[in-house]
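Deliverable D5.2: sample structural annotation.
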Amino acid sequence: MSKVREAMLSEPRTLEASTPAAEAGQLLARPEVRAVFVCDEGRLVGVVTRKTLVREVVATGRDPRETRVGEIAEEPYYTLDSELDLEEAFRFLEEHDAERVPVVEGGRLVGVLSRELVQRRLAEDEPPEGDPEDQQQV
């Protein structure tokens, strides 16, 4: 059986907790970046999104050059263990309607699991229909 670690995106882009919020804003200005993971010496502290920046920095009048991402990072809704069975992880993603979930080992961020990539991976692992190995011998 495949494990989460075999399908995750390794070494996701992160910011250290001491990074100014302005730097997170620059990353989040890119349309393909929806969230930034915040770590403190490799340990996952939280996630910063555009909504987080608006609510915690812009709306409160804080200076984004002085505010650190560690101060505003939100705890992730979910995390997955890297040794979790891939099919079980996919069911979890489906049940919680989650597109991307951080993958941790002992609290350290080691990757990100994407529902789209898991779907592709599981489809690749399935034998094709009509495969002789699938058919029982009589």
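Annotation notes: Helices lie at 4-7, 21-28, 50-58, 69-72, 86-95, 115-125. The two ends are 28 Å apart (CA to CA).
The annotation will be released with the project's public dataset once the embargo ends.
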